[in-house]
Amino acid sequence: MNSVSRSRRRRLSAAAIMGAIALTATACGGGGSGSGEGDSVVIGYTGPLSGGGAAYGENVKIGLEMAIADLNADGVEVDGEPVTLELKSLDDKYAPSTAASNAQRLADQDKAPVVVSPNAGAIKAIQQINSGRSNFLISAYTSDPAIVQADNPLTMMIPPNFESYATEFSETAMEHGATPAERSAETTASTMPPCPISRGPSRKPWPRSPTRSSSADHPNRPL
C-alpha cells in the first residue's frame, strides 16, 4: 500500500498543476500540443521511477495522475480555451543531471509549459536551464529553502520550506507535555539541528524536527 494517502496526493498535485497553469498561461504563453488549436497541454514530470527512490517517485506520479484526471473531469481552460491536460513522465533515477536533461526534453519536444520535480537536487539542476532556449516553469515539490533562495522567477515551490516547521513542531510538542532540554553531545555532532525539547527526564528525547534535508541522503518529502 502506498505510504501517502490518495486524497493528500491529489490535493497537493492539483494545487501544483493549477498554480503552474495559471502562471504559465501568462508568463509562457500557454504551451502544449494544442497551441493554436486549444486541445491539450502537456504537464511534464521528471522523478525517480527506478532505483532506490522509485517508491517515492511513483507516489508523486500517482498523485499527478489522479489530480489531472480530476481536473480534466471538471474542465480546464487556458486563455479562455478548453484544454485537456496530459501527463508525460520521465525517469531520472534521482540523478540531477538526468533530471535537467529530462526537463529540457519535456519543454522542447513535448512543449510542456511546466515540469514537476520532487527533489531538491534535481530542481537545482533544472533551475540552471529553465530560462534558456525554452522557458518553462518548475513546479518544485520540495521543502528545501534553497530553492526559493535561488531567486529563479520561473520556479514555484509547492509546500512550505522546512524552516517554517520548527515553531509549529515545538509548540505542538510543548502542548503534549514536552519540557526544555539541553542539547546533548550526540545531537551536537549531528548535521541536523536538534529540537530543544524532550519528553521528560525518564523518557526518550522528542524526535528532532529537520530544518534542512539533503537529496543525497533521502527523498525530500513535504510533511
TrEMBL record:
Transmembrane residue ranges: none
Keywords: Signal
PROSITE patterns: PROKAR_LIPOPROTEIN (PS51257)
Coiled-coil stretches noted in the UniProt entry, renumbered to this chain: none
Signal peptide segment: 1-27
One Pfam assignment: Peripla_BP_6
Ranges of residues in domain Leucine-binding protein: 41-169
UniProt-annotated stretches for the region Disordered: 172-223
Keyword Signal: yes
Family: Belongs to the leucine-binding protein family.
Full protein name: Substrate-binding protein
Species in which this protein is naturally found: Brevibacterium linens ATCC 9172
